[in-house]
Amino acid sequence: MAALKKPLINILARSLLGAALAFSANTVLAEEKLPVQQQTQVAGYYRMMLGDYEITALYDGYVQIESKLLKGITANDVNKLFQAMYVNDSNGVQTAVNAFLVHTNKHLILIDAGAESCFGDTLGSIENNLRAAGYTPEQVDTVLLTHLHPDHACGITKDGKRIFTNATLYVAQAEAGYWLSKKSEEQAPEAGKAVFKMAQQAVAPYQAANKFKTFTDRLPINEIQLMASPGHTPGHMSYLVTSKGNSLLIWGDIVHSHALQFARPEVAIEYDSDSEQAVTSRKKILAYAAKNKLWVAGAHLPFPGLGHVRANDNGYTWVPVEYSPILKKQN
């Protein structure tokens, strides 16, 4: 029996040694083949179908908004709501800047255009993401701006030239009448004059090319309906797009903080031209979107900024879109 044990022990030892060596070799090999972390994000666009229309959300980047700019709410309530939504505001709240491309089969319409180079290097990606999404600036035939703040308007122009060379630019008359007015600029606080300059510089190349138009109560594009939503700016406009019974409300800056302003619509932001009017518009738009179960697209909602508004006992809840493939129609 003892004679049998020795060979068995030797076999077992050799097996264990072989396994250990193989494990060691595989570990070294795995370490050598392991790629470096990429630490980059995918292109900033997201697509969905709205009836027969194609909607593409485009990511321009982000800004950091300090919570002290939010008004009509206590610091304690801000902290509670931020914690409930896992929002980190230690360096300001990361806030997306989105634009939306609407393909109606008759028009290719860009609604808002991002900041280009007006607000630093965390913004300015609309053109690149438009191209990544399979389109070029030259293919856009219509640009609609919800308002003329730089993070929506500066992206139409680069180095004093039109980015969307074949597009007509549309802005609400009340909005253009304020931001493009030298009198309004002169009456504005010194700190706000730069916003007037940036709006005027963005629009100027389109004016020079006779590609700038204003509107009051309707657009010459039948696919788009208007919903006036003043307050954040004097002529802030939201756009309603409908195809085959499906509607999307592209509402610009109705909400800046998804963590606060759905739960507490009365919360305003320092950037509002008329805070009271902005709150009134927000309450009206939120109620309308929830009641009619609309799709919503927000310029400052977490990218892609698409989803629904759900009413609850105390306010509203944001229900973001779920990632979904695009199912191509069979010819």
From TrEMBL:
The domain of life is Bacteria
**What InterPro entries does the entry give?**
MBL_superfamily_lactonases, Metallo-B-lactamas, RibonucZ/Hydroxyglut_hydro
One Pfam family it belongs to: Lactamase_B
| Protein keywords | Hydrolase, Metal-binding, Signal, Zinc
The GO molecular function terms of this record are: hydrolase activity; metal ion binding
Q: Where is the signal peptide?
A: 1-30
The Metallo-beta-lactamase domain extends over: 96-300
Entry's SMART domains?
Answer: Lactamase_B
Belongs to which family?
Belongs to the metallo-beta-lactamase superfamily.
Recorded protein name is MBL fold metallo-hydrolase
Organism (species):
Entomomonas asaccharolytica
